[in-house]
Design goal:
The protein contains 23 helices and 16 strands. It is α+β, with helices and mostly antiparallel strands. It folds into five domains: 95 residues, no CATH class; 192 residues, no CATH class; 67 residues; 102 residues, no CATH class; 33 residues. The protein is globular, with a radius of gyration of 30 Å.
Length: 670
C-alpha cells in the first residue's frame, strides 16, 4: 500500500476539557459514528496490516535501515517495499516516477525504477486547443522535493541502488504519528474526515477554489518581500490550512511578541469563516496582529503545522506566554511546539461558556455569576481562591456539577491565582478579547466572499497601524496631567506611553495610602504592605535595598510589567525617589520601537539577505522613530523636521519616476 502522510491526515479530535458551544455538523456526527463503529477485532486486523507494512523488508533488522548507495535487493518489488517501509517510518509518501525496460531475447525486461517522494516535481499546466495554458482548478501537492531512490537491475535477482537523495524540502510528519495516520486510513475514519474537510472547503471557497487566495498572496509578496505565506496541501491536492503575515506584523512581533493570543473566535459560531489570528498588545495597549490563518482542518498535526510555520515567519522566536481556547488537539500542539512557553486558557471564554453551561443554575440563583467572577478575578492567592470556590459550591449545592468539576480540574491553566509567575502583558482583563470578538462577528460570516473577507481584514489591519502611529505621535507630543508632587510620577510620565502611564499613575496614587511594616531582616528584607485601615488585605514584599529590587506576593509586575501599589508604597517609605531602571519594561515605553532589538535583528539577518526590504523597513523605522522624538520637542524642531521629510519624500518620488522612465538616476544631497 502506498502512503502519503500529509500533516493533516488524521482524525478531528474531540475536546476533552471543554465541550463546543455549537452543535456538531452532520459531517462531524457521521465522523464520530464511524470512529466508534470499528469493532475491536477489525481494529486488530488493521493494526496488524500496519505492522506488516512497516515490516515489508524481509529481515528483522531492515526495518531500521536507511537507504544507501550500493544497497542490493532481490527484485524491484522488494526494493519498493523497503523504500515504502522507510517512508512510513519517516512520514512521507512515495510513488514510482520513472521506469525503464529493455528488450532481451525477445522479452521486455524491467531494468530501472525510480521511487520518489509524493511532493517531487512541479505541476505542468496543460495547453488547450487555442494554445493557452489551462488553469488548474486545484493547488498542486508537488513542491519540487528531490528525495528519491533509484534501483537498477544488475543480474537476474540483483537490483542495486545507484541514485539516492535523502533530504526533503518540506516538513514530514513525525514518526510517532505514522501509526495513528495509518489506523485512520485503514479503519475508514480517514474517509469521514476527508468528507468533513471537503464540506468545510465548499463553505469557505464556494464553487470556486483557492486560486484567489494564492494570487492575493503572490501579489502581496511581489509588492513587499517581507510578506510571508504558507499553504498546507494534503495528498489529494486539496488545501487544508493557510497562514500569512505581512511585514509590519512580523516587525511588530519583534517588539511585542512576548505575550501572544491565538484567537479562534470563529469556533464560537458555526456561521463564521474559520479564521484564526495570532495577536498581542503594543505599548499603547492596542491589539496588534502577528499573523492570520484559515483553519479548515483542526487536528493536532494541523495546529502543530500552523504553529511551527508561524514560528518560522517570526524568525524562530518563542513567546513567553500564549493564550488560547481549549481543546485536546490544540493543547497537544501547543505543548509540542511551545514546550517552554506558558500556556494559558482564555479566561473570558471560560466565563462566557459558563453562561450557557450553567444557564439553568443561573436562572435559579441570579447572584451566582457575579460571585464566580469575583472568586476568579479577585482571588490574589491560591489559598483564597480555593476557600472562595468551595464556599460557592456549598452555598449553591454544586459539588456534583460536572461542568464546574471540569473547570476546577484545569484551574491551573486559566485561574489568575495559579498563573502569577508568567508574563501576559495584561493591562485589561477582557476588553481586548471582547473587541476582537465583536469585530469577527460583525465581519467574518460565511455569506461573505473570500475576496470581501480579505479586503475587510486588510482594512482593519491598516486602521490598526494608523491608530498606533497616531498614538505614537500623541504620546510624544502631549504631557499628561500629574496628580502628585512625586519625582517618580514625573519620571514615569516622560518614559511611559499615555495608556501605560495612566495605569502606573493609578497604582502610584493608591500607593500613597499604603504603609509598609518590616517583619523580617536579612539580605532580602521582608515587609507587610497594606492599605491604611485594611488589616485583611496585606501583601508580602521582599526588598533588596542595595539593588533596589522588590518582589510582591500579588505578582502584578510579573504578569503585567507594571509595578504594583505595594512595591511603590514600599519605595516611597524607603526613600526611593525614582523608578530603578530594571523596573521599567521597555515594551511599555515611548521608545519601545526606537532601537533595534539585537537578538531579533540577528535572526532576521540569518533568514534574509542584507538586500531584504524587511531589513530596510526595520532600519528606516528605527531612524524615523528617533527623528520623530527629536522633531516633536518644540515647534521650531517640528518645522525643521517636517521640512526635511518633505524634501526627502520628494526626492524618493523623483527617483521612482526616473526608474519607471528608464532614465539615469541618482539621489542628491538634501
Amino acid at each position: 500500500m502506498e502512503h502519503s502522510s500529509s500533516e493533516d491526515d488524521e482524525l478531528v479530535e474531540d475536546y476533552l476539557d471543554f465541550e463546543d458551544d455549537i452543535k456538531a455538523s452532520d459531517v462531524n456526527h457521521q465522523h464520530e459514528e464511524a470512529a466508534t463503529s470499528v469493532a475491536s477485532s477489525n481494529m486488530a486486523l488493521v493494526e496488524q496490516a500496519i505492522e506488516n507494512e512497516l515490516l515489508a523488508a524481509d529481515d528483522g533488522d531492515a526495518k531500521n535501515q536507511v537507504p544507501c548507495l550500493g544497497m542490493e535487493f532481490e527484485s524491484d518489488t522488494v526494493a519498493r517495499a523497503f523504500y515504502n517501509a522507510y517512508a512510513l517510518r519517516l512520514g512521507f509518501g512515495i510513488r514510482v516516477a520513472r521506469s525503464r525496460s529493455e528488450r532481451r531475447k525477445g522479452v521486455e525486461v524491467m531494468v530501472m525504477k525510480r521511487f520518489v517522494c509524493l511532493k517531487e516535481g512541479h505541476h505542468k499546466k496543460k495547453v488547450t486547443e487555442n494554445g493557452t495554458k489551462k488553469k488548474r482548478k486545484r493547488l498542486s501537492i508537488r513542491d519540487g522535493c528531490p528525495a528519491m531512490m533509484e534501483v537498477v537491475r544488475r543480474g537476474p535477482e540483483k537490483w542495486v541502488v545507484t541514485k539516492l537523495v535523502l533530504e526533503h524540502t518540506h516538513m514530514v510528519v513525525s514518526p510517532e504519528r505514522v501509526r495513528e495516520i495509518q489506523l485512520s486510513r485503514l479503519s475508514g475514519k480517514d474517509r469521514e474526515h476527508q468528507d468533513f474537510l471537503k464540506e468545510m472547503r465548499r463553505r469557505l471557497f464556494g464553487e470556486g477554489d483557492a486560486q484567489v487566495l494564492l494570487e492575493y498572496f503572490k501579489r502581496m509578496q511581489a509588492e513587499n518581500a517581507g510578506f510571508f505565506y504558507a499553504m498546507q496541501v494534503d495528498n489529494r491536492n486539496c488545501l487544508t490550512n493557510v497562514l500569512w503575515a505581512d511585514a509590519k506584523a512580523r516587525l511588530s512581533y519583534n517588539y511585542f511578541g512576548d505575550a501572544v493570543t491565538f484567537d479562534t473566535t470563529y469556533r464560537q459560531n458555526k456561521n463564521m469563516i474559520p479564521f484564526a489570528a495570532f495577536t498581542g498588545l503594543n505599548h499603547h495597549g492596542q491589539t496588534v496582529v502577528f499573523g492570520c490563518a484559515l483553519m479548515i482542518d483542526k487536528t493536532e498535526s494541523s495546529f502543530a503545522w500552523l504553529f511551527e510555520t508561524w514560528l518560522t515567519a517570526m524568525f524562530g522566536r518563542h513567546p513567553l506566554s500564549i493564550t488560547t481556547d481549549q481543546g485536546k488537539a490544540l493543547a497537544s500542539a501547543v505543548a509540542k511546539v511551545f514546550p517552554d512557553t506558558c500556556h494559558r486558557l482564555c479566561r473570558w471564554r471560560v466565563l462566557s461558556r459558563c453562561k450557557k453551561k450553567l444557564s439553568d443554575v443561573y436562572r435559579r440563583h441570579p447572584t451566582l455569576h457575579d460571585e464566580l467572577k469575583t472568586c476568579i478575578n479577585d482571588s490574589t492567592t491560591v489559598e483564597t481562591f480555593e476557600v472562595y470556590w468551595r464556599k460557592i459550591l456549598d452555598k449553591y449545592n454544586l459539588r456534583e456539577n460536572s461542568w464546574l468539576q471540569i473547570l476546577y480540574n484545569i484551574r491551573h491553566r486559566w485561574v489568575p491565582a495559579y498563573l502569577r509567575d508568567s508574563f501576559f502583558a495584561e493591562l485589561s482583563t477582557t476588553s481586548r478579547v471582547e473587541s476582537m470578538n465583536r469585530f469577527y462577528r460583525r465581519n467574518f460570516v460565511r455569506e461573505s466572499s473570500l475576496q470581501m473577507f480579505i479586503a475587510k481584514f486588510d482594512q482593519e489591519m491598516d486602521n490598526g497601524y494608523e491608530k498606533e502611529a497616531q498614538e505614537d505621535c500623541a504620546s510624544l507630543s502631549t504631557q499628561p496631567i500629574l496628580k502628585t508632587d512625586s519625582p517618580m510620577e514625573k519620571q514615569a510620565a516622560s518614559i511611559y506611553t499615555r495608556t501605560v502611564f495612566e495605569k502606573f499613575q493609578a497604582e502610584l496614587v493608591e500607593a500613597l495610602n499604603h504603609y509598609a511594616v518590616k517583619i523580617q531582616d536579612g539580605s532580602m528584607i521582608k515587609y507587610s504592605v497594606g492599605r491604611d485601615g485594611d488589616a485583611h488585605n496585606q501583601y508580602i514584599v521582599f526588598f533588596d535595598e542595595p539593588e533596589k529590587k522588590a518582589y510582591c506576593s500579588c505578582c502584578k509586575y510579573e504578569v503585567s510589567g507594571i509595578l504594583c501599589r505595594h512595591v511603590l508604597g514600599l519605595f516611597l517609605a524607603c526613600g526611593t525617589i525614582l523608578l530603578p531602571e530594571h523596573c521599567i519594561l521597555k515594551r511599555w515605553t515611548k521608545k519601545a520601537k526606537s532601537d533595534s532589538v539585537g537578538h531579533e535583528i540577528e535572526l532576521e539577518v540569518q533568514n534574509y539577505s542584507q538586500d531584504s526590504p524587511i531589513l530596510w523597513y526595520n532600519d528606516l523605522l528605527h531612524y524615523t522613530m528617533k527623528f520623530a522624538e527629536r522633531g516633536a520637542t518644540s515647534s521650531e524642531a517640528y518645522k525643521i523636521a517636517k521640512d526635511m521629510l518633505q524634501k526627502v519624500f520628494a526626492q524618493i518620488i523623483s527617483y521612482e519616476e526616473n526608474v519607471a522612465e528608464g532614465m539615469p538616476h541618482h539621489v542628491g544631497k538634501v
